[in-house]
Amino acid sequence: MADRLGEIRVADQVIAIIAGVAVEEVLEVTVRSSGIYQDLAKKLNGGAKGITVSVIEDRVTIDMRVSVRYGAQIHHVCHVLQEKVKEAVETLTGLYVEAVNVRVETIELLRNE
After folding, report:
1. What CATH number does the domain containing 54 carry?
2. Lower CB count within 10 Å: N or C terminus of the chain?
């Protein structure tokens, strides 16, 4: 982002954190923690706990690995998640979110205790 006063850059990690906070608003979803290879990618790409971010010019692509609560409608929950993440990142950074890619990796089973 550039204006008459100079350039403004938002770090990929900051965008990933904003996305992670937005995920917390969707009760049926949790972000998957990373494995060894994903941890390395996170450090290189500015991801945060199962979230990686790519910024090219003023366009953002966000990739998320999530778990969905058993019984939730996966397609509906993921669509809500995409909307919340897109809105939060665009509102707080002024960048355009081109895509929020969601990969559902597991289902969380809740037990009555």
Report:
1. 3.30.70.1350
2. C
